[in-house]
Design brief:
- The protein is mainly α.
- It has a single domain (5-183), classed as hpI Integrase, Chain A, CATH 1.10.443.
- It contains ten helices and three strands, in the order H-H-H-E-E-E-H-H-H-H-H-H-H.
- The chain has helices at 5-13, 22-35, 39-44, 71-84, 104-118, 125-138, 143-150, 155-161, 167-177, 179-183; strands at residues 50-51, 54-58, 64-68.
- Strands 1-2-3 form a three-stranded antiparallel β-sheet.
- Helix 2 packs antiparallel against helix 4 (71-84), helix 2 packs across helix 6 and helix 7 (143-150) crosses helix 8 (155-161).
Amino acid sequence: MKLSKAFADFLLDGKAEGEYFPERNLAIVALLVDSGLRVSEILRLDLTDVQAGLLRVVGKGNKERWVPLGEYAQRAVEAYLKVRGQHPDCPALFVSRREERLGPQGIRLILCNLREQLGVKRLYPHLLRHTFANLYLRSEGDLRSLQLILGHTDMRTTAMIYTDPDVRDLQAKHRRHSPLSQIA
């Protein structure tokens, strides 16, 4: 997925009109786009899992990993924490209106509202995970570190499922590596 102008503007502006708890919603979207987290991983995060630009993430099979936060995502999480409020009975990082751990339906609703407001046809969590993976590789990130960030045990999963080269990327690579271009 190429980030649409409307979606990029949302990320830069930090909120969509008329939404409830915009700081929370922006932090969630930032984590989806900037860290490639799964919805289940975001929902499992506790306040104690945020540590100095890193997230302690419990992924599939209860495997724990540390995921770095980009500056933007880190600022979005920090801004959210300033307005989150104190909920001593709820250790969750992301809370609902009822001051309970946010559920999967909450994230679906956030993205559904955002999709409608931005006028984009497709916007769902796993698409943002794929977007993260592709943009990470296009910005010269390597496959091994991407595998670790995404929490895959097998690099083939990362390579085959989460990478979708853009045709322009293929053209540019082909120009650089074409055997006949090298000769001529």
